[in-house]
Design brief:
There is one protein chain. By secondary structure, the protein is an alpha/beta fold. The protein folds into 2 domains: about 170 residues, Medium-chain alcohol dehydrogenases, catalytic domain (Quinone Oxidoreductase, Chain A, domain 1, Alpha-Beta Complex), CATH 3.90.180; about 130 residues, 3-Layer(aba) Sandwich (Rossmann fold), CATH 3.40.50. Helices cover about 30% and strands about 25% of the residues. It has 9 helices and 17 strands. The strands form 4 sheets. Strands 3, 4, 5, 8, 9, 16 and 17 form a 7-stranded mixed sheet that branches. Strand 11, helix 4 and strand 12 form a beta-alpha-beta unit. Helix 2 packs across helix 8. The longest helix is centred in the middle third of the chain and has 21 residues. The structure holds zinc ion. The site of zinc ion has 8 residues, from loops.
């Protein structure tokens, strides 16, 4: 099979011909039909955060068809359309048993990110427990985007506890920010979208943003205050995680407001204890999504309640070009598709 291998940090991926991975007894062999490309892939390339053993096959937004199953697999059969939940969890620890799969204490790997090869290849084998059946109405490309961007957005909006009539700030309109904006709009929340790239305005408005801002931090806060009647927003969802974005998100909150941090970088941000305590502000972290967030995201697409965020499609042999475009900045999602 063809695969794009990460052999050395900072270097382009190498296109190689590798043996097709045979499924173990509890595994399924999945023929990849679509694989999303996102910021975590750039972090892996840059050696920040997760550090898989090299060589490694990235790609953690995978949708495809079951090609074969191991002897113990009874829930899936060849031909089934599936999306891949990428956290390989133990199913027995306190987090697994309390619907916080992505905090599992005994994680056995993350597909395309840590220890388990991902979807920058024509095939991958993985435990069948990772598969979620995909409704026929959902395309492989949209299904793939649910596997990280979509489920992460559902979880982040859940953590933000936004209510009808609230005003929310969404910082960073990439894949996650796009779906966050769609979900908030659907929930009756007024969205102010912020992105450093002014060219994303039309896209952000298509996702449901009422207002789009692309200004320096000081001016941004002035504009946010005036948009929110001088008091601040109910919640801020930061999909970027730079010092400047976290500081702006926190400062923009009204008393009792909640900031949800989804994106992360090596940055820290100074937090005023007085501001936090006296205004009962909340700072909340959120990590990817749970199995159920992925399943619900697929259902939302099947019901026509979410719009596709796929902007560009590339073939596997164009993966380095696609990663370069992502690094340059693109609204929505880039997806590798396989015939
Ligand atoms: Zn667990």
């Amino acid at each position: 099979m063809k695969a794009a291998c990460l052999r050395q940090l900072g270097e382009p991926l190498a296109l190689e011909e590798l043996p097709k991975p045979g499924p173990a007894a509890d595994e399924a062999l999945v023929r990849v039909r679509a694989c999303g490309i996102d910021g975590t892939d750039l972090k892996l390339l840059d050696g920040f955060g997760y550090a898989p053993s090299l060589p490694f096959i990235m790609g953690h937004e995978v949708a495809g068809e079951v090609a074969a199953v191991g002897a113990d697999v009874t829930d899936f059969a060849p031909g089934d359309r599936v999306a891949v939940y990428n956290f390989i969890t133990c199913n027995t620890c306190v987090y697994c048993r309390s619907f916080r799969d992505q905090l599992c204490l005994n994680m056995r790997g993350i597909v395309g990110i840590l220890e388990r090869p991902g979807g920058y290849a024509e095939y991958l084998s993985l435990p069948a427990q990772q598969l979620i059946r995909m409704p026929d109405a959902v395309s492989f490309a949209d299904g793939a985007t649910c596997c990280d961007a979509g489920m992460t957005a559902l979880r982040a909006v859940d953590r933000a506890a936004a209510r009808i009539g609230d005003m929310a700030l969404v910082i960073g309109i990439g894949g996650v920010g796009s779906i966050v904006t769609q979900l908030l709009k659907a929930a009756g929340v007024t969205v102010i979208a912020v992105d450093i790239d002014a060219a994303k305005e039309a896209w952000a408005r298509q996702q449901g943003a009422a207002t789009f801002l692309s200004t320096a931090a000081d001016e941004l806060l002035n504009q946010l205050r005036s948009l929110s009647g001088g008091i601040g927003v109910d919640c801020a969802i930061d999909v970027v995680g730079l010092e400047s974005t976290m500081a702006a998100g926190f400062a923009a909150l009204r008393p009792g407001g909640r900031m949800v941090v989804v994106g992360y970088t090596p940055d820290l941000f100074p937090l005023s204890g007085k501001e936090l305590a006296q205004n009962e502000k909340e700072v909340i972290g959120t990590r990817a999504g749970r199995r159920n967030d992925l399943a619900r995201c697929l259902d939302l697409y099947a019901a026509g309640r979410l719009r596709s965020i796929v902007r560009r499609r590339y073939r596997l042999d164009q993966v380095n070009e696609a990663l370069a475009l992502l690094r340059a900045g693109v609204a929505g999602r880039i997806v590798l598709t396989f015939d």
